[in-house]
Amino acid sequence: MSEDLSKYLESYTPLLPDDKGKFGQFGGRFVPESLVNACEQLQIAFDKFWSDPEFRNEYLNLLHSYGGRPTPITFCGNLSELLGIKLYLKREDLTHTGSHKINNVVGQALLAKRMGKTHLIAETGAGQHGVATATAAALFGLKCKVYMGQVDAKRQELNVFRMKLLGSEVQEVISGSMTLKDAVNEAMREWVSRVDTTHYCLGSVMGPHPFPYMVREFQSILGNEAKIQFKELTGDDPDYVVACVGGGSNAAGTFAGFINTDSKLVGVEAAGGAALSYGRTGVVHGMTSKLLQDETGQINEAHSISAGLDYPGVGPEHAYLQDIDRASYVAANDEEVLEAFLMLSRMEGIIPALESAHGLAWIIRAAKAGEIPKDKTVLLTLSGRGDKDVQQVLSILQLRKDEKGNF
Amino acid sequence: MRLSELTAKKTSNQKILVPYITAGITDNWGDLVLAAADGGADAVEIGLPFSDPMIDGNIIQLAYKKSLDAGYNTQLILDGINSLKDRVGIPLIVMTYYNLLFARGLAKVAFDLSTVGVAGTIVPDLTIEELDPWSKESQANNLDNVLLVAPSTPRARTAQIANLSTGFIYALGVMGTTGIRDSLSQDAIANVTKIKELTDKPVLIGVGVSTPQQAQQAVQYCDGVIVGSALVKLILDKLDKPELPKFVQSFVTDFKTAIA
Fold first, then answer.
1. Looking at residue A179, what is its pLDDT?
2. Which residues of A are less than 8 Å from B147 in CB distance?
């Protein structure tokens, strides 16, 4: 079976950053002078290849034959009945490697190859982007090194093994808080030193221009597929389009498909990492955005049940969409996320990634409170599958078992 | 005190030495700045610690961590600089990342820096495309604005940066982070050679100048050097020694003698 994915991008009109790489006042390029040339070269290469039909075809063919796209939309009958809404899931959990991350890494690895780079480096928090990058590196015959905070590497031992299995080196980062934000710093530092041979395969819609724009474009297939599929399925656009937000790549890709519709766009952050809900404007990791920081400008750590959302910043495009009121951003706490995780598992037979469960947690809360009115259609991007999280969820649930051992 | 006296030294063919010290690395960091001045420094670069220092290597990261863990923040460091201003006798330059300036407010922090006697700033994550807001405030407060040129910076862009930079031009000696290197890189020499063809302003090599011998070699191609990680490492290694200021002074003197 073969399907040409290009039809999904035919009517896509992207929101473009300005000539400084900014969305409104957010984004830009705040990097040491030693990285400016690398960012410019990357921008030139991306602009060239992204508008090259041959590159696009190769990218989209790989997303189809290797990545498993298009992913389906699933109607959740049982949850819809319970909540009094019509709930649909865009199933990124069904892609190769089990999350939307594959869309981005296939694009960037292909670009790296065209730019003549022989090495990929990447940062990872929970390990999903690291595993995806290692996968793409294996596919394209590129050497790969993934930076991972030592704290995260201990929490996600299996993903460390997966990356090694795929032939990548995993470099534990022991600076700062030893988590995702420090892995980003370390990967940037490495990039400065090895820029001739190495492409930095950044995992989200963050960092200096062109990364936020480029990663969103590589993720835009997600939202553009969803828009066309949803219309075929229901005859209309969704009333609500919901996605979880850490750095914000699955949400950016999802929103890209609906930015020019009347759908309400809702991004759901982790309460302990809610840069858009609680942060202030600042500059870190090469961009201006909303950041969790103290009053003197030191960046705080983020904390949540989901390592994939443990990021103290957020992609600049989201800060802009919030600023212009095109999207709204809310937060979900660990407890309601766990409930959502269990509900989707039990009522629909789909174990979601804890990240994606944030989106569902807000939908459940908002539907019960009448904030989402009865019978409205809601499309949630299920950004990843929950297999990686079952051990963590088990350890939490162990604490509340009844005498028969039931949760 | 602005950095114009460095230009005067350049004009009279004196080589310029700028040691770097992280503020708050130890509680008597102010004494270390004075010791560097006594040792023959022409100016001192004072680092304000940041949680996410993108261009700094292990040694300076550790210095930042010590400072932040000890509770140092922008205000405390400004107070410390204020207590030095009448005693130090040479220009002080503040190096920090943009978010610390942004968080305090550009107008306010430029005024505060000027008030405590700072001569200029180095903000490594501020590119010329984003310079305008800070440039405006630093000019209004009589602060110099030292800009970086990397080995990878193309010639046309180098000319633009050289034109906008005031005080001197900071030539990065390596494509990489701050840290100690075994030898002065060819990149460093090529970088300063490129810059000097385009400007008469003083050009100093920073990052990757780790020994007096390397400094001596460097000043054959440029007007001076900035010594960071090697000095910070010495400080970190001898933090508990009461003679620490003496060590700093003689470290600086060794470099000064080498480039004279």
1. 86
2. 33
Residue ranges of chain B with per-residue pLDDT less than 70: 1
Domain assignment of residue B229, yes or no: yes
* pLDDT given for residue B1 in this prediction: 52
Which residues neighbour A165 within 8 Å (Cβ) at sequence distance 6 or greater?
A: none
pLDDT at A392: 87
Q: What is the DSSP string of B221-252?
A: TSSEEEE-HHHHHHHHHTTT-TTHHHHHHHHH
Which CATH number applies to A22-66+101-211?
3.40.50.1100
CATH of domain A73-98+220-400: 3.40.50.1100
Q: Which of B147, B161, B177 sits opposite A189 (nearest CB)?
A: B177
Provide the 8-state DSSP code for B219.
T
Given this model, what pLDDT does residue A309 score?
A: 87
Please answer yes or no on whether A297 and B54 come within 8 Å at the CB atom.
Answer: no
Residue of A329, A389, A325, A328 lying closest to A356 (CA atoms) = A389
Distances in whole angstroms, Cα of residue B3 to Cα of each of B9, B18, B159, B252 = 10, 12, 20, 19
> Which CATH number goes with the domain that contains B227?
3.20.20.70
Angstrom distances, CA of residue A233 to CA of A90, A226, A236, A238, A379 = 12, 10, 8, 11, 12
Q: Provide CB contacts within 8 A for B69, sequence distance 6+.
A: none
Identify whether B107 is part of a domain.
yes
In this structure, are residues A244 and A309 in contact, taking their beta carbons and an 8 Å threshold? yes
Q: Is residue B156 assigned to a domain?
A: no
ipTM of the assembly?
0.95
Q: In this predicted structure, what is the pLDDT of residue A175?
A: 86
Contact A286 B125 (CB under 8 A): yes
Return the pLDDT at A391: 87
- Alpha-carbon distance of A370 to A80, in angstroms, equals 14
**Active-site residue A144, yes or no?**
no
pLDDT, residue A2, reads 62
Out of B58, B102, B152, the one facing A37 most closely (by C-beta) is: B152
SS3 assignment, position A24: coil
Domain ranges of chain A: 22-66+101-211, 73-98+220-400
Taking an 8 Å cut-off on Cβ atoms, the answer to whether B74 and A296 are in contact is yes
Question: Catalytic site residue A76?
Answer: yes
Whether the CB of B65 is below 8 Å from some CB of chain A: the reply is: yes
Distance from CA of A323 to the nearest CA of B (A): 19
Residue B168 falls inside a structural domain:
no
Question: Looking at CA atoms only, how far is residue B123 from chain A in angstroms?
Answer: 9
How far apart are the C-alpha atoms of B153 and B221, rounded to whole Å?
18
Q: Do B103 and A296 touch (CB under 8 A)?
A: yes
Range of the structural domain that residue B62 is part of = 4-145+212-259
Instruction: Give pLDDT < 70 ranges for chain A.
Output: 1-2
Smallest Cα–Cα separation from A350: which of A77, A122, A110? Answer: A77
Residues on A contacting B at a C-beta cutoff of 8 Å: 20, 28-34, 36-38, 175-176, 181-182, 185, 188-189, 192-193, 195, 280-286, 291, 293, 295-299
Judge: B130–A31 Cβ closer than 8 Å, yes or no.
Answer: no
Test B103 with A185 for CB contact under 8 angstroms. no
Query: Catalytic: which of B31, B42, B45, B129?
Result: B45
Number of domains composing chain B: 1
